[in-house]
Amino acid sequence: MKIVILDGYSAQPGDLSWLGLENLGTLTVYDRTAPEQTVERAKDAEIVLTNKVVINKDVIAQLPLLKYVGVLATGYNVVDVEAARERGIVVTNVPAYSTWSVAQMVFAHLLTVTNRTEHYALLNRNGRWSSNPDFCYWDTELTELADKTFGIVGLGNIGMRVAQIALAFGMKVQALTSKSQADLPGGVEKVDLNALLTTSDVLSLHCPLTDNTRHFINVETLSRMKSSAVIINTGRGQLVDDEAVANALQNRRLAAFCADVLTNEPPRIDNPLFKCPNAYITPHIAWATKEARIRLLQVAIDNVRCFINGNPRNVVSF
């Protein structure tokens, strides 16, 4: 059975192994695949794995041997699932592999804002502390998280983990969620949108990207938030209107914006957020701890093995 990985570099840049797949068939791994290369590279494959390479209806129509598409991620919007379903092609994903890692990144960003460790480490490399007349110094506001209000949009696996960590910091946690209050863990309060926006000191986005959540953070929602608030986005870039957030930061109507995802990836160099000193942007790496990538590869390989054995799992196409 021929297996092709179209863009394997992000998940496995050389520190892990595809050996489990090599044992299941004839494996070809491409680090990256441009859209115009997709059909040519996948035309003889029965099994295709993709991370960000799009497998749309037109591509599927040109791959008569294709039986299985494995997405090397939790989100599977890169595949036209309906077109795959019509052809009887199995599509799988890898759920919940990065929950701990993404939640960790949320607080790495938040602590960057409240404690500014990178700022002080850089100053001290250049001699700032060594030349100080006192035993300590600070030139930024330092903030304690205890008793601050942490708002969460979406209480899936990651949102729930983030809530637990926020509670451990002594924060008041509230959530905009479809779950009932009775189904929420102790210490987490279900609130409506207006309460979430007007009372949150920190707002963290963990909802799916839908027509209703696209640009959830926009001029109107920003106008209802505290000027001292911090927004964190480790969900989907399109949840946020970049221009609106940049304007809010520049006009001091928002204290800080932290994001691991942006609307376009890689982003344009002229993205307005890059000009804002209180915008903290990481390059979509919340999922990429070695531990999370080990889980990702193991589940992806197991998904293929289960499909070959006639018992597919993590199927999103049926």
Q: What would you note in describing this structure?
A:
The mean pLDDT is 97. A 7-stranded parallel beta sheet has the order 8-7-6-9-10-11-12, with helices on both faces. A 5-stranded parallel beta sheet has the order 2-1-3-4-5, with helices on both faces. The chain is built from 11 helices and 12 strands. The chain has helices at 19-22, 38-42, 57-61, 81-87, 99-115, 117-125, 157-168, 193-199, 219-223, 242-250, 290-308; strands spanning 2-5, 26-29, 47-50, 68-71, 90-92, 149-153, 172-176, 188-190, 202-205, 230-233, 256-259, 279-281.
Describe this structure in a few short sentences:
The protein is of the alpha/beta class and about 325 residues long. Helices cover about 30% and strands about 15% of the residues.
Number of strands: 12
Radius of gyration: 22 Å
Structural class: alpha/beta
Parts with pLDDT < 50 across at least 5 consecutive residues? none
Helix content: 25-40%
Q: What letter string, H or E per element, gives the SSE order?
A: EHEHEHEHEHHEHEEHEHEHEEH
Arithmetic mean of pLDDT: 97
Instruction: Note the overall shape.
Output: globular
Strand order of the largest sheet: 8-7-6-9-10-11-12
Counting DSSP H or I runs of 4 or more residues, the number of helices is 11
In percent terms, what proportion of residues is strand?
5-15%
- Biggest sheet layout: 7 strands, parallel
Ends distance:
23 Å
